Amino acid sequence: MLSLFFLLPILNTFLAITSLALLVITVIFTYDLIRYNGRLLGPKISPFLWPGVILSSLGGTLISLIYSEIFLFVPCSLCWLQRIALYPQALLSILAWRKRDTVYFPIYGIGLSVLGMLVALYQYVYQMLPADTREAFAPCLVDGSADCADKVIDMFGFVTFPFVSAVAFAFTITLLLYLQKYPTKQTAAAK
Fold this sequence. Notes:
Largest sheet: none
Number of helices: 7
Strand content: under 5%
Shape: globular
């Protein structure tokens, strides 16, 4: 069998740079939503909201499966909680797009994304703590399958898998907030 492990550093670097770019975009979108109620960027990005939500959820699902099924990294219990918040969105976003649902899906998507982001932030803080202070936390199951403190990705000294996950969830939340405020023209015509 062909070993693809030589691609792992390239993929890790790509994910780290992409997540930092998404973080900058998310901060800009969040500023627009808070300061201008989305009026500054909302109309300009509205045609790209559905593709963004779908690509974000499908991309996250695909990346997590690549790491666990191809590179054989065993997901820890906190990673599984993040997957539970992410995987349904991959299917639900496609179904909601087909049905032009900008009323209910954003609510469910935001709820799932907030859950996933909170778990990712908790795991990120846990990973960044010194090893001797982690004992006060109980993030992982004691089954020994995977340690939540293990850093599958460790780029630039602070970008880890939970960091990438939290940024992706935050980006999805901002897109869903815009989707509620600025449904696409096809969606508005269907109502």
